[in-house]
Amino acid sequence: EPEVTQTPSHQVTQMGQEVILRCVPISNHLYFYWYRQILGQKVEFLVSFYNNEISEKSEIFDDQFSVERPDGSNFTLKIRSTKLEDSAMYFCASKPTYDTEAFFGQGTRLTVV
Amino acid sequence: AQTVTQSQPEMSVQEAETVTLSCTYDTSESDYYLFWYKQPPSRQMILVIRQEAYKQQNATENRFSVNFQKAAKSFSLKISDSQLGDAAMYFCAYRRTQGGSEKLVFGKGTKLTVNP
Questions:
Q1: pLDDT by residue (tens digit) across B21-78?
Q2: Would the CB atoms of B45 and A91 count as touching at under 8 Å?
Q3: Which SS3 state, helix, strand or coil, does residue A25 take?
Q4: Hey, is the C-beta of A105 within 8 angstroms of any chain B C-beta?
Q5: What values do phi and psi take at A86, rounded to 5?
């Protein structure tokens, strides 16, 4: 069964460093998302992406964040200068059409020290 | 703004018994989707069941079913014949659409423990 794949599963980074979280969505999917979950809290929307551009972004998704679909298969989330409060589980999700459910990847746990 | 409320931070159930997890939501839309996601200790988000608001019939997936009360804006999940593998966090989610974009709005989750 096709699945959304995220790498790495766990990343530790120093505060102020740049990180790139990678996702390979399911191959025929057209809508892509990043969500995050701070430990013990609810899952929060970060950004949605369709047709090579951002559809919507949350107030969390400030200038430190960016997304890219560099080669038609990968979908990346970049955090330019990480802060301690960026420590969270980051989930990528994708779906084939507008009116279907999203399939989530297994998440990347980001720890900023 | 749409909100999703799960009033039970934790629930427990005996193996083979039935448990119901509550969820209420607030929206002014007439057509929308609701979901229950399961998050086991591995922390992956797994879709359990979905409900389309225009469908009056409650969705069912094997041992999982929902009680969708549109007027009351209630969307509870019933797990029958609970199994040890059902132990997880369960998140209720509302699919919010606006201006051609859409996203999921999640509740805070209910931690389900299944006792042998």
A1: 999 999 888 888 999 999 998 888 899 999 999 888 999 999 999 999 999 999 999 9
A2: yes
A3: coil
A4: yes
A5: -80, -10
Of B44, B100, B104, the CB nearest to A106: B44
Q: Token digits for B103?
A: 């996203």
Identify all chain A residues contacting B100, using CB atoms and an 8 Å cutoff. Answer: 55
Cβ contacts of A107 on chain B, cutoff 8 Å: 43-45
Q: Distance (Å, rounded) from C-alpha B84 to C-alpha B58?
A: 25
Best CA proximity match to B36, nearest among B26, B22, B19, B16: B22
- Centroid of chain to Cα B113: 16
pLDDT in tens, A21-66: 999 999 989 999 999 999 888 899 999 999 889 999 999 999 999 9
